[in-house]
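Posting this for the archive.
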Amino acid sequence: MSLRTRIFAMMYDRQMARAENAGLRAFRQRLLAEASGDVIEIGGGTGLNVPCYGPDVTSLTITEPEPQMLRRLERRAREHHPPARVLRAPAEDLPFDDRTFDVAVSTLVLCGVDDQPRALRELRRVLRPGGRLLFFEHLRSGDPGTARLQDRINWLNRLLVCCDCNRPTLDTIRAAGFTVDQVEHTALPKAPKFVRPAILGTATTPVAARSGISLADGAA
């Protein structure tokens, strides 16, 4: 584990506090009000989503690959949702059978995974037919000037906060075989211009999805 990763985990809640108070927490609450049944959340971080899950969630499984984040996540889960199952796993290699979950949750995660298309294919694999993906993510801007700025400064963003600010996340969700049902283009509160463009939305897997989807599969 690198020193940078350890410091990032230690400072994460403090760094996010202004954004949370300025509207990010409200985005989480809106999104997760739709979670129900068997739910998986990837990249749970320090557990900022955990208090937002409601009584319609039958079971909650949260994955997080970084040990320093995981310890904070476990503490928050014990405090706010004791039945939750927390485990260390990357989004690109989820240790679950096909068609295990009703709902998948990704909030400010797809910008930082090593392989975004693979992570989304994994989510599609572990969701049941007609399963839902709930997402809040920042992404490459649709404004050409802002997109160029994101490209120029992405190296610094990756160095400081361990994510890419210029990924075409909405396109990648569709390419993984999801149907985007709702999407709201919005902004990450209290964020620099180059990471501000964001989307809040839901997507579904095909109802007649075939079994045994592999990571080698492309979009259906």
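The chain is about 35% helix and 25% strand. The chain has one domain: 3-204.
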